[in-house]
Amino acid sequence: MRVREVIRDLPASRIGEIAALGMGDPAVIPLWYGEGDLPTPAFIGAAATAALQAGHTFYTYKAGLPELRAAIADYLTGLHQRPIRAERVLVSSSGMTALMLMAQALIDEGDNLVILAPVWPNIAAAVRVMGGEPRLVSLDPLPGGGWRLDPERLFAACDSRTRGIFVNSPSNPTGWVISAEEIAALFAFARRRGLWLVADEVYSRIVYGNRQAPSFLDQAEPEDRLIAVNSFSKNWAMTGWRLGWMTMPTDLLPVIEKLVEFNTSGSPTFLQHAAIAAIRDGESFIEQFVARCRAARDVAIDGLNACRRVEVARPEGAFYAFFRVAGMTDSLAFAKEALRHAKVGLAPGSAFGPMGEGYIRLCFARDPRQVGEAVDRLRPLLD
Ligand SMILES: Cc1ncc(COP(=O)(O)O)c(C=O)c1O
Predict the structure, then answer these.
(1) Any bridge partners for residue 38, and if so which?
(2) What would the mean pLDDT of 186-204 be, rounded to a whole number?
């Protein structure tokens, strides 16, 4: 069968490979994917049912329901202390679709996107689908398990075919959180060079310190070449709904809107009505969810750190433990072994770029007792 070469050669997800081996086995504790065990809050589901029954089942605005765009703009304005107008917000059918739309709009064959890594593999795949080069630049691993950004190395990776710089903070998989000073340095460089900044902020509310996660939207002028990607998936336990949004300068929005027509032709109308309820009334859910994640994080990190071969820092944000295992050189083989012998589903570090080899990712967005049991089961493999 003839298909485009870049599509034929796209690597299959290594996270999916592990999940496919263990899916459907009730004995497995599934910590492979980036989602929790809580269903979507009932008030959001009820809003979807009501919208369905009220007949919101027709084609709708490509950029999203005006009322939802306004609700997102209000939410962002409240978070970032800068007015963000609804004209800069476009509703997408998931964060993933937002990333694909970004790649379709920016990446020509031979262009590159400089990507801070280790990183969720789908962003690199989106660039590859367009015939571009995902250029991964690693954070520096610190002794004790943390990570640090070297902005100069990121800038040195940019050349004449670079269209932009991609940063995911809080990071999947490392939990690293960018600082306000680092954001300012990236803006200064990108403005000088006429590059796009793509900020993946889907975990922006999932942070464990006393402060909010610094955001590119805290510092962006409305006309800056910034695309900030967000999602309903993580904050409101809506992974299966496939809804997200993008914030961008107003002159890019009609371009993305045109692309929406040829991708999804708009996001499901009744789901968008429910998303309004999520964003307006979901704060207490987020608070409880983050508190539960914090408890599970501490169980996971304390348990892992007690294992002789493990090195891991307490992540500041997102909901993953990304731990290094001394002596492990094949994380895919290790994840298969953990599935077979410990019945715990994990993601191999190599899924997140070559610099992720030697690491394992464990998603702790679940009942802390179950996370504790998973770590207990893993101990014989990690001591
Ligand atoms: C860093 C990052 N960006 C974007 C997404 C996309 O989320 P969704 O497509 O469910 O909105 C994910 C999901 O795991 C993610 O981890």
Answers:
(1) none
(2) 98
